Amino acid sequence: MKFVAGGLIVALMACGVAQAEKLTPERVFADPDLSGPIARGVKVSPDGSAVTYLRAKADDQRMTDLWIADVKGGDPRLLIDARTLAPKDKVLSEAEKSRRERQGVQTRGVVDYAWDDQGRFILVPVEGDLFLYRLEGGQVAQLTATPGDEIDAKVSPKGSFVSFVRDDNLFVMASTGGAERALTTGGEELKSWATAEFIAQEEMSRPTGYWWSPDETRIALTFVDQTGVDVVERLDVNAVGAAVVRQRYPRVGRPNAKVDLYVADVATGARTKVDLGAETDIYLARVNWAKDGKTLYVQRQSRDQRKLDILAVDPATGAAKVILTETSPHWVDITDDFKPLKDGTFLWSSERSGNRHLYLHKGDGTLVRQVTQGEWPVDALEGVDEARGVAIFGASKDSPVERRIYEVSYKASAEPKALTSGGGWWRVDVAQSGKAFAATYQDPRTPPQTGFHKADGTRVRWIEENPLAAGHPYQPYAARLREPSFGTIKAADGQDLWWSMRTPPGFDPAKRYPVIVQVYGGPAGALVSKVWKSPEDQLLLEAGYILFSLDNRGTPNRSVAFKTAIDRRMGKVEVEDQLAGVAHLTSLPYVDPARIGITGWSNGGYMTMMVLTAENSPYAAGVAGAPVVDWSLYDTHYTERYMGTTADNAAGYVDAEVTARLGKLKPGVLMIMHGMADDNVTFDNSTKAMAALQGMGTTFELMTYPGLRHRAGWTQANRLHRARTTLDFFERKLKPTPAP
Questions:
Q1: Class of the 482-734 domain?
Q2: Per annotation, catalytic residue among 330, 357, 453, 710
Q3: Where are the domains of the chain?
């Protein structure tokens, strides 16, 4: 059942790479998208009869429309044309801009949508206003038209209501239209209702602050008080002018927002406060309703993140009881793997065995059985078929560089059954019934392809086939793609470190080549996987570089031992592992050890600066994008999870700080890049490094981007400039010989 598009590449390569076109920076950042028509935001309709997804316009990959494909067949069709609904020159509110930044939204137009549970209509936010698409009749109705932005919009479980947050209050209205009704009043920026605070959105993957009960009679909602959070003043420097932003940013060891939880009666608005315990300095991690709506489940995480409790709450009184506790001497990760079942039991994932696995518990928390086991981790619980008693999950069971979809019985001991093939990376959206799923597959030779599948994995139809064939945007350049190689080296503690390598077109192993190491290296992501890589990477290959990446200890989707090797000592084992990767590189006869560069963004920018300042650093040049240079300048939940606080781990913070090491940086080998409106890795990280380097008289290069944040808002022109600047820097420092 493997999706194969690589045969075309092999055939084209037989004709010789000289016959294929070379990619240029101008083409990489032009329309249409070189990766082809990729289905994003894929969702199976509640009844399993259709699949909806977002698709970029052919003439503007920054704008996405809503499409639908019927399971029974026929061509996919456009449901919502963003251009017809999106107001021109609409300026989004700061709350919506921040929300998009936290979620990494890179497009405009239709960027999100939600089905009702009966599959009758789809709620579509478009640039701050709400629209409802009714499948019967195929008509779109505009529900709101206000100066403010309606954010975090939802359809109630039975489809009777639409809800949204505006100006820090929660509103509901009938899905048939009509007047809206404020369920809360008095909300303001620092004391808001039904919102997810900065930390929840940025670090906890909790983008919402309210949750409907299954019978639509109640809503659990947060009240967030940020008055105790420090104000971090930062400049938003734009192309014209600058603004001082007084951002509530909770830095290491400082106060977080105080989050309370209530249950509101939808009919009357009356609220009952949930008892979250005497300790208020906690994190509200997750909220779920039982299938019958009689119990509200709340996940409460301690400030040091070494303990996570699941509370069973009586929504009528707010009384709570701890039914399950997870502890760790390192940290307890937050996931979306809690799944209440109709019979009152629930599925849960835990790392108590040394790898993340699935467990079945009774409603009171009593363990029924361990569902999966082995020396591999479950990545995510994707869905459940309760009729068959089957859990559907994603895992890199065979290798950390591949991801497949599996099913396993949770009613009896059984081995997982693979539903998808190996050799690449799979993502799925499972139907509510668990009896079908939409799956997207990719590998280094196959752009993302989406199909609809039966429960046994059989593909029923393509949703977005996206074959790398004649007419595909990348087809003229495909013959210059080379198959990447993968392998492992040993870390100092004996654990396997996976690496990947790509060589330039026309590669001759008898010659010596410069190398650019692409690094991230942090707990939020891994780079070494069998996926379709950004066409932007081909620009570096075309310029004559070998590309190399290594996932050091501390990166995700591995064992507890592998992930927690960085505990209280960030910047130590990661640097050791990256240096071990370079030692492997320099042992290869076709690598020039004097011409090795490195680049990364965010944590990758941090890693770039850390390895450039290592003792006897083997790197000749590095481009550090939006780097953290001092972890005390970063936020609470992320940093304290791995480092504790400066009060209890002062030496660890000193050892992990870039600026303390800058005396070892060779002149002229570093370029720093940073957006000048970054509200995640704030710009003062880079200015601190700039001041230190200038104070030492050490030369470096700098490229700043007015008005740009950490992720969102980057235009094709900005990205083109960044790519050209990077290419120019490495060309001057590493002097590659371009590929033929």
A1: alpha beta
A2: 710
A3: 482-734
For tokens 């083109």, the residue is 720
From the candidates 112, 337, 443, 678, give the one annotated as an active-site residue: 678
pLDDT along the chain (740 residues), means of 10: 34 49 95 96 94 94 94 94 80 72 77 92 92 91 91 94 97 93 97 97 96 98 98 89 91 98 98 98 98 98 98 98 98 98 98 98 98 98 98 97 98 96 97 96 98 97 96 96 96 98 97 97 97 97 97 98 98 98 97 98 98 97 98 97 98 97 98 95 96 98 94 88 97 81
Cβ–Cβ under 8 Å, residues 236 and 677: yes
d(CA 736, CA 693): 28
* Buried b / exposed e along 413-445 (16+ C-beta atoms within 10 A): eeebeebbbebbbbbbbbbbbbbbbbbbbbbbb
C-alpha dist (Å) from residue 586 to 174, 189, 483, 599: 66, 54, 21, 18
**From 602, 679, 684, 686, the catalytic residue:** 602
Query: Is 710 known to be catalytic?
Result: yes
Helical H segments across 613-683, by residue range:
636-643, 650-656
**At a CB cut-off of 8 Å and minimum separation 6, what does 241 contact?**
none
Task: Give me the numbers of helices (H) and strands (E) for the chain, helices first please.
Answer: 13, 44
Q: Is 635 a catalytic residue?
A: no
Distances, alpha carbon 529 to alpha carbons 145, 396, 399, 444, 449, in Å: 44, 10, 9, 9, 17
Length of the chain: 740
